[in-house]
């Protein structure tokens, strides 16, 4: 969106901000469209020193096509910002379009991994029990599809609630929930507010079965965290992760009309600060200044899950893209010959890639025209893998 006032066909609104012509601007200016809560960075910022040697530009095979370089992949996949860290040092940093070091970009479902870490910290402190029923913390959902589910089911997206994550279907549950939280205009039968939506969600099957990606599970998780701690999510992330991690800039999280955070995809942050989070995970939950933030036990069970977690993933349609993978504690994984790779993934091309074997973190913020693009994702993962050697 340029000029002021912009031409009517260029104005970004709640009705159009996720459309291809508008989303690149919207992803970096969401607080101008929707209410947000600040995630304070505090006064302490950890350093990300720059490595002097140039980064290589390896060649990969474009899915279904010919050879391309990693830089060509990133250029072709609508990158807004790219950061590559090796051993906590910046080896590549690139901003495209109007994005800058201080731009807060929408993380979409990368947000889920931050909420998962908040839950892990609360579990370690005894405020949450993974085996406890959801209703122990949020009795308001006793009469909906979450009845009988446990925190563990929610963390690993193995609840049985009726929820379709179908972005191209206007009547899907994910689109209904988006309208309830204010990301799109309400329709006559929609409820107002994310938690109101969760209270009326139905049952689609038993809990504890196959992994099925459901954004509503992260919103349920966020509600449980807030209830257990007595603190809203923006302040939980700030005090438990953002400030002790040494973030450089404040982040923010979108909230609905009643002030509830959109836990599943509403966090906005800068490229480097998301890199700090990736480095935190690479370093087993220890920040660059040596302070432990995420419990080691929590990350150990995330990187090395029980067999049933792998089995719950293996038969899904995610397996071809992420071979040998699993979903645990709000993180994605796939397996390379050198070991597991952790991923934080969000629609429209948001990614954090953590390869402990090569000590590499790649952060990519993007504006894919479509919410999901299998070719773009496969090419991006191949480019990241080629860099992480």
Please describe what this structure looks like:
- The chain is built from 13 helices and 13 strands.
- With 389 residues, the chain is an alpha+beta fold.
- It has one domain (18-387): DD-peptidase/beta-lactamase superfamily (Beta-lactamase, 3-Layer(aba) Sandwich), CATH 3.40.710.
- A seven-stranded antiparallel sheet has the order 5-4-13-12-11-10-9, with helices on both faces.
- Helix 2 (70-76) packs antiparallel against helix 13 and helix 3 (111-124) packs across helix 9 (233-245).
- The radius of gyration is 20 Å and the shape is globular.
Number of structural domains: 1
Helix run count:
13
Radius of gyration: 20 Å
Helix content: 25-40%
Secondary-structure-derived class: alpha+beta
Just give the CATH class: Alpha Beta
What's the helix-strand series? HEEEHEEEHHHHHHHEEHHHEEEEEH
- CATH architecture descriptor text: 3-Layer(aba) Sandwich
Q: What can be said about the biggest beta sheet?
A: 7 strands, antiparallel
Q: What would the CATH topology be?
A: Beta-lactamase
- The count of DSSP E runs of length 2 or more, i.e. the number of strands, is 13
Q: Termini distance?
A: 39 Å
Give the spatial strand order of the biggest sheet: 5-4-13-12-11-10-9
Shape: globular
